[in-house]
Q: What sequence folds into this?
């Protein structure tokens, strides 16, 4: 085993990564932001279409299977068509508002927002 400290190994790895990023033309500031849209409008339009169609198809499939299994034709399929359509519209809203590109859908904190555990500011007259 190596007698060097693990910190030196990590520093060397960090230096090698920085060098590789520099060779590739990437810098720390050049990383893509969390809430940025994909490269072009055609890709965004294709994604929106796929989101709507797939949500509806899954809703129809689940409704049809449950109707076949429970013998309640066509009621569950109608319910799941509506649920699938609602899910598709929600997904399109998330994509259009930029939430679809960030993990966990973080909320931006504005001037009036407070962090958890933070005291609200006192208003003096």
A:
């Amino acid at each position: 085993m190596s007698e060097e400290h693990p910190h030196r190994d990590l520093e060397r790895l960090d230096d090698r990564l920085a060098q590789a990023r520099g060779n590739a033309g990437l810098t720390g500031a050049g990383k893509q932001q969390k809430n940025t849209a994909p490269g072009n409008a055609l890709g965004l339009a294709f994604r929106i279409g796929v989101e709507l169609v797939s949500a509806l198809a899954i809703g129809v499939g689940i409704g049809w299977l449950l109707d076949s299994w429970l013998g309640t034709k066509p009621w569950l399929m109608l319910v799941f068509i509506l649920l699938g359509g609602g899910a598709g519209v929600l997904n399109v809203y998330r994509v259009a508002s930029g939430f679809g590109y960030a993990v966990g859908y973080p909320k931006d904190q504005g001037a009036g927002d407070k962090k958890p555990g933070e005291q609200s500011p006192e208003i003096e007259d």
Remarks:
- The CA atoms of residues 52 and 90 lie 9 Å apart.
- Helices lie at 6-24, 41-70, 75-97.
- Residues 35-101 form one domain.
